[in-house]
Amino acid sequence: MLLKHTPAEVVERSALTINPAKTCMPIGAMYASLGIHGCLPHSHGSQGCAAYHRSMLTRHVREPVMAATSSFTEGSSVFGGQANLLAAIENIFTIYDPEVIAIHTTCLSETIGDDMNQIITKAREDGKVPDGKFLLHANTPSYVGSHVTGFARMARAMVDYFSEHTKRNYDQVNVVPGWVEPSDMRELKRLVAEMNLQCVLFPDLSDVLDAPQTGRMQMYPRGGATVAQIRDAGNSVVTLGLGPTASALAVQGLDAKCKVQGHVMELPIGLRATDRFIASLRRINGGAVPDSITAERGRLVDIITDWHQYFYGKRVALVGDPDQLVALSEFLVDLDMLPMYVITGTPGKNFEERMAKVLGDRAGRAVVKQGPGADQFYLHQLIKNDRPDLLIGTTHCKYMARDEDLPLLRFGFPNIDRCGHTYFPTVGYRGAMRLLEKMLDLFLDRKDRDAPEEQFELVL
Ligand code: SF4
After folding, report:
1. pLDDT of 172 above 90
2. 332 shares its domain with 254
3. The ligand 1 atom nearest the CA atom of 52
4. Of all protein residues, whose CA lies closest to atom 5 belonging to ligand 1?
5. Are the CB atoms for 162 and 100 separated by under 8 Å?
6. Which of 17, 27, 94, 198 sits 20 to 30 Å CA-CA off 124?
């Protein structure tokens, strides 16, 4: 029993988090930065922060994630990190030759109070930014927010630094994909293209963190949204922000700066959410939905109908990021499953209202908790009092799953003990099919494992 000290009795806590249901804000900024073509993320702080952020992302995507750091020492911790950052900018452009350096702060540089706008202006004035190269920054103090808000702030910084309105393009739509996998970003672009629309998707990690093996080391793979594309996002007719926590800031930025109409919606995970995503694209393309997408949807509906018997009434505990939790819960409800516990450590507005909306008449039977005290320890206590049939969460949940003998569907960040999530999407109709297959395998494997010999069936 790895978590044998978790008591079943729940005591109200206000100043203690145990096994948090979130990670650190700069990780999200670093992840988003990698979605710009030719970008080297830069961590303005100590080496340890950068090492942690890089290693978590590297383990999650199983690709080498490169990033630079200002390498604060005692001197920079007292006098500020300007000298380190100016030297870093010059060295990075000279040695590593990126198109863009995306700088995010850390707890330390935020506590010192480094003025990033002033330092970036000075770097430009001192000639440290070569012609045709770019800097941008996001403030990411990790004592507020989470990795999701870090992602949101860096996506917004892309708009603030690059997007411009010159001439409206009525066939072009922006998609801010939220915190999803590279595979999901690829799938979203495919869906938009199938709907016969041009797409600017940013940040875009497809072909960056899932780049093909070519036999040659490429510091900057071919993927990522280019600065020109992000600039052109200011000319699109609409921005679809997927997942309010991760995407609303960028959508608001495009509206305010370039008058691009914004529409923030839940992540298209599951049938209804994908229907809404396609419906939004229909409103832009004049109403046409190609047969290929209608067929994909039909296959999903067929699977749901055929497999409903296995999912009906199953009770689920979920822990992770707000946008994923809301979308997953809606999908579970559509399958006649019951989300029992829904826990996120990421703070933010409207999570409980969004959850209440998707839970509908099941809301009264679910525990929904957000922010301080909403951690994996609390979820474990809830589970000890009333067991679900399935646990959905990150790799960190494996201890809980083992102790309580629960099937675990790994979902969200980080997933560092399983593969495939960066290659196989969970958004869209195809992604929903994959989710259904993974859940069903868990239920049926368990049924086989637990069946007495006389009930061990060949056909299930
Ligand atoms: S929480 Fe703060 S100090 Fe810790 S790794 Fe993140 S940025 Fe660095």
Report:
1. yes
2. no
3. 5
4. 49
5. no
6. 27
